[in-house]
Design brief:
The protein has one domain (4-160). Helices cover 40% and strands 18% of the residues. The chain is built from 5 helices and 7 strands. The chain has helices at 10-22, 40-57, 69-87, 135-142, 152-160; strands spanning 4-5, 92-99, 103-110, 116-119, 131-134, 146-147, 150-151. The protein has a 5-stranded antiparallel beta sheet, sandwiched between helices. β6 and β7 (150-151) form a beta hairpin. The chain is globular and about 40 Å long. The mean pLDDT is 93.
Length: 167
Amino acid sequence: MKLYVQNPSTFFVQRAYELYNSVRNTDLPQKAGVKYGIDDSTWTKLIETTKAKLLDMAKGDKNLVPRDENGLCIYASVVAAKFFVLRNHILDTHVVRVDGKSDHYYAVAAFGGPPIICDLTCRQFGGPKYFVGTLAELKPSAKQVQAMGSNLYEIYKLGTQTRQFVV
């Protein structure tokens, strides 16, 4: 199946912007002392922040908050994008949606060098909790994770080549 970059419905774009604008500097964890600032502890805090902010937006209705990475994909990517803007000072950070058999969202940060991918929900495809790094850094691992009739490396490659993004 062919993969392509496409925006979601207007509803999801609006929710993504609402979430992005609701996340404050004080909501985000500090950078970990690793390349790109995300380790297991930071990942956990970013997922917790995503769920807490969604619960706020849902006015406390837990039924409106996704329970797993399948439903958190777009929202965790929005929080990851905000983390890269505020903690890594990479203003050119966006959420990309790749569509095919299903869809997948992740953040792409561009800072003058190779783009950085930040995927906080790749575990839904049998991958690790998260992937963060350049295409070259992620290639060996991301090629091993099958998703949407392809692999995550090919999905990430599409996102680094587009200027179409959700937020």
